[in-house]
Specification:
The chain is mostly helical. The protein has one domain. The chain has 10 helices and no strands. α4 crosses α9 and α7 packs antiparallel against α8. The longest helix is centred in the first third of the chain and has 36 residues. About 25% of the residues are buried.
């Protein structure tokens, strides 16, 4: 019998099955981005599903029901905008990634874990908008998301080999500031929750607006325009 018998299975191409080939596929960020986009899409869908108007209402009761739904609607708007803000930030960072490593994959999963708590926190806020516990829990979830965002950003900035453009440390100050400012606002919102619940809700609502305004101003200023181009 010859060494290459007809009964032997065909050998796999070396280029696809080699150690280097496997490593290249593992380092490709596409699947990490696809998973993240899928989780964000599910979260945004779950948020809007919280808004449901009962059927068979009379004209008189419709106004009452809509008034009762107002906190839920506000919680949806706030949470939708904050979730969108974090998706934009994630997109901005991962668009610059050439490769991912094991640590970054797990850090991203922890980030998704915190993001996954937003629908629960939003539902609680919609049901109990005047309860300090609901406001504190909402703030705690949002702080945890922002902290994980900063951790991922710091990890990537300190490892320029992961990036297409190499070293982006000159942009790091803006990135850390954009990640830290929401944490400060969340902390203030939690601090006033017991005495001024409406103000607490307004502060949560202000976070994506402050973020968008800050990025817009930084991109418009000549002195920070180049650094701010990395952020949307």
């Amino acid at each position: 019998m010859t060494a290459n018998s007809a009964s032997d299975p065909p050998a796999a191409p070396r280029a696809d099955g080699s150690f280097d080939g496997i490593q290249r596929r593992l380092q490709n960020p596409d699947r990490v981005v696809a998973l993240t986009d899928g989780v964000f899409a599910i979260i945004l869908t779950l948020l809007v599903l919280e808004i449901a108007v009962p059927k068979d209402l009379s004209h008189g009761s419709l106004g009452t029901v809509l008034e009762e739904l107002r906190p839920t609607f506000f919680a949806w708007v706030i949470s939708f905008l904050i979730t969108g803000m974090h998706w934009v930030s994630h997109r901005d960072l991962f668009a610059r990634l050439r490769v991912v490593n094991r640590d970054l994959v797990w850090l991203n999963l922890l980030f998704l874990l915190t993001i996954g708590l937003i629908p629960f926190a939003a539902s609680l806020l919609g049901e109990y908008p005047d309860e300090p516990i609901a406001l504190h829990l909402y703030g705690a979830v949002m702080i945890s998301v922002s902290v994980m965002r900063i951790i991922i950003y710091r990890y990537v900035v300190r490892r320029p080999a992961l990036l297409w453009a190499g070293d982006v440390s000159e942009h790091a100050a803006i990135g850390f500031a954009l990640g830290a400012v929401p944490i400060v606002i969340y902390g203030i919102a939690m601090a006033v929750a017991a005495v001024r619940p409406p103000l607490s809700v307004f502060l949560f609502f202000s976070v994506p607006l402050v973020y968008f305004l800050a990025v817009t101003l930084l991109r418009d200023r000549k002195s920070t325009r180049d650094e701010a181009e990395d952020f949307s």
